[in-house]
Amino acid sequence: MKRLSLIVRGVLGLVIFALVLEFCARVDDALSYGAAFWPPYNREILETRDSIGKRGRPGARFQKWKLNSLGFRGPELRSGSLRIACFGASETFGLYEAEGQEFPRQLERELNTRAGRNSFQVVNVAYVGETVATATLRVPEIVEQVHPSYAILYPSAAAYIWLPWVREGPALAASAATQAEPIPARFEWRIRERIRNLLKQALPSFIQTGLRQREIQAALAGYSVMDRVPEENVLRFRKDVSQLVVVLRAAGVEPVLVTHATAFGKTLSESDRDLLIAWRKFYPMLKEEGFLDMEQRMNDAIRDLAGQEHVLLVDAASEIPPGRGHFADFSHFTTPGAAVMASRLADGLQSVIDSQVRRGSADPPPRPAASSDRN
Predict the structure, then answer these.
(1) 200 and 273, same domain (yes or no)
(2) pTM greater than 0.85
């Protein structure tokens, strides 16, 4: 009986301890970010769905991520500026950079510094997990709302590892449903994410890598493991990027193509191999070496398309140094890495900046020199 009493008291103590931690986490969220005390508070509150798929929830905020009234990350639109839209996925949306330091925000500051006045506004229309095909479907709506003169295309090729994930369909005039879905009312432990982050910092890298390898093996059921991405997937990626270029130009928006940069250089260290395993956890059907091959082939497809269609090319894959100083993981930027990306993009757009300085921001924007003209 005494032993049972000790067990009950121990369990009760653990429950009270967990509840106190949860209470403290909710108070911290409320004081730090203005979060409501009871509703769910996680990255999912940033998203809603419409007829096309996931999109940003207008006016949503989670920690450092703030969406404007159109559901795009960043400030509200302002009048009297030349607008540049940034298309992409999580690398463009921004994950690990300090607040306000994702590359679209840094690019806007860089462009305006070089111009000597507030002539430019860069609008981050990217969303986590968005494919090129889905971005194309959203072009009519984005053009109607943002009225960009230029569009920076920083496509992530990883979604094309497995083609069933990539949606096909013609570009729509506008999304059929724009009203945000309500946030589901359910209880969630907010201490869970904090504990996960603490474990990532505390556990040695070899243990984390071993756990990821176990996750990969458990996820392989139903998939055949590939050494490299099939050529069909590369051709589909190129076709989708080409379609995005066509749709943008048809809407009067001049595209700028950007190759995809990663943390990996020509030689791989042991920590690089750990990063490849971390990447593969999201795409278990492709062997680690296949990711490097995929990046090379997909970037070659972007370079070839830029030359063929006379689109300005910024070769970020070649110009941004690899390594953990510029990348927080396999492909997402650190704050310094986003600064280098912004600088390289500003270099590519220098002719546009010069024209704005000469002509004034009210004049029609020039078309930038195509990549084939700059070589």
Answers:
(1) yes
(2) yes
223 and 266 belong to one structural domain: yes
Q: What is the pLDDT of residue 342?
A: 98
Range of the domain at 21: 1-38
CATH of the domain at 116: 3.40.50.1110
Count how many Cα atoms sit within 13 Å of the Cα of residue 6 in the half-sphere of its side chain: 3
Determine phi and psi for 291, rounding to 5 degrees: -70, -40
| Tokens linked to 99 | 């607040």
First CA to last CA distance, the chain: 84
For residue 90, CA distances in Å to 108, 287, 375 come to 18, 22, 30
Instruction: Write the pLDDT tens digit of every residue in 275-322.
Output: 999 999 999 999 999 999 999 999 999 999 999 999 999 999 999 999
What does the pLDDT read at residue 180?
A: 59
Shared domain check, 158 and 28: no
**Rounded to the nearest 5°, which phi and psi values hold at 86?**
-105, 115
Please check whether residues 16 and 144 belong to one and the same domain.
no
Pull the structure tokens for residue 308: 């063929």
Q: What secondary structure letter does DSSP report for 248?
A: H
C-alpha 9/C-alpha 11 separation (Å) is 6
Average pLDDT of the residues in 116-134 = 93
